[in-house]
């Protein structure tokens, strides 16, 4: 894993980093785009989705253990690039903690140590944990429509275990957006 420089422009404590975090098909990407547009800032897309879509398109294969480190490196690189360009606020559509949760879930507790180390750093101002009350939208990369409540509990348990600050977002798209804006406005007013 890449080592981050101690201080670079816009990677100081002044940059508020908000991560959308939670089970698949809970509206994270939609909300990330909405929030970035609302605040006129950058958002970091989910690298895992891009990586796995390319893999599926070329090989008709889904995620394997050997994909975890390249996915983590890609996510960190996207975030690093956006952090250097963002002014006050950066919206992240997932982060390595989500990759850690999925890795441990799908691979019976296995997660590469490099990912665990990076995922458990307190680099974010707040996690917005998306609840499973949104409609399931199937696609080739999503596979657990009946395990959403279980996955939500696993995601929340990881936040509690790490002691990371978080708020749960529930409701329809408009309700989630309004709640997220209230939370982010409070962070920006500090």
Automatic annotation (TrEMBL):
<protein>
    <submittedName>
        <fullName>Nicotinate-nucleotide adenylyltransferase</fullName>
    </submittedName>
</protein>
<dbReference type="InterPro" id="IPR038727">
    <property type="entry name" value="NadR/Ttd14_AAA_dom"/>
</dbReference>
<dbReference type="GO" id="GO:0016779">
    <property type="term" value="F:nucleotidyltransferase activity"/>
</dbReference>
<keyword id="KW-0548">Nucleotidyltransferase</keyword>
<keyword id="KW-0808">Transferase</keyword>
<dbReference type="InterPro" id="IPR052735">
    <property type="entry name" value="NAD_biosynth-regulator"/>
</dbReference>
<feature type="domain" description="NadR/Ttd14 AAA">
    <location>
        <begin position="17"/>
        <end position="176"/>
    </location>
</feature>
<dbReference type="InterPro" id="IPR027417">
    <property type="entry name" value="P-loop_NTPase"/>
</dbReference>
<dbReference type="Pfam" id="PF13521">
    <property type="entry name" value="AAA_28"/>
</dbReference>
